[in-house]
Design brief:
Order of helices and strands: HHHEEHEE
Strand content: 5-15%
Distance between the termini: 30 Å
Helix content: 40-55%
Structural class: mainly alpha
Shape: extended
Number of helices: 4
Number of strands: 4
Largest sheet: 2 strands, antiparallel
Oligomer: single chain
Length: 155
């Protein structure tokens, strides 16, 4: 019987296998053996598929339950150690602390002012003088990078 998850077993299990896999894949990509569109499609599909699996509340609950069986030290698999971590999130809405509310409101104002100033600087194409201080203000340096966006048709 074939299982869906068993399809993942063709991927590397160790860092050494991963390094070899990456080098081989890199060579195949650069040699034009695979269509770039298929590669980008597969990457997006694999990411979305795994996200859907791991974001499912029932799956997450089950996986936590399984790993808890190994205790605080966690579970080992191949070259990995799997532990359960937690993170606290605080909601200050119902604290009734007016000082915090005032500070948060001031912060919003500062954040807006900073964003507006950044937009102004981004629009500069050459240096300008600040009429109040005489200081020279220069356009900000920037870098630009390219990335891939893969989206699936809505069906």
């Amino acid at each position: 019987m074939e299982y869906a998850i068993s399809q993942l077993s063709v991927l590397p299990d160790t860092k050494e296998q991963q390094a070899r896999f990456v080098e081989m894949a890199k060579a195949e990509i650069l040699d034009g053996i695979f269509d770039a569109r298929e590669l980008l499609f597969r990457k997006k599909m694999i990411q979305d598929t795994l996200d859907q699996i791991f974001d499912d509340p029932q799956v997450k609950k089950h996986l936590i339950s399984e790993i808890e069986k190994y205790g605080k030290e966690g579970a080992g698999w191949a070259d990995a150690k799997i532990t359960i971590e937690s993170r606290k999130s605080y909601n200050y809405d119902n604290c009734g602390d007016t000082e915090l509310s005032d500070l948060a409101e001031k912060q919003k104002g500062f954040d807006t002012a900073v964003k507006n100033r950044q937009k102004f600087l981004q629009a500069l194409t050459k240096a300008v003088a600040n009429p109040e201080t005489g200081e020279m203000i220069y356009p900000p340096a920037f870098s630009q990078s390219e990335f891939f966006k893969v989206s699936f048709s809505k069906k």
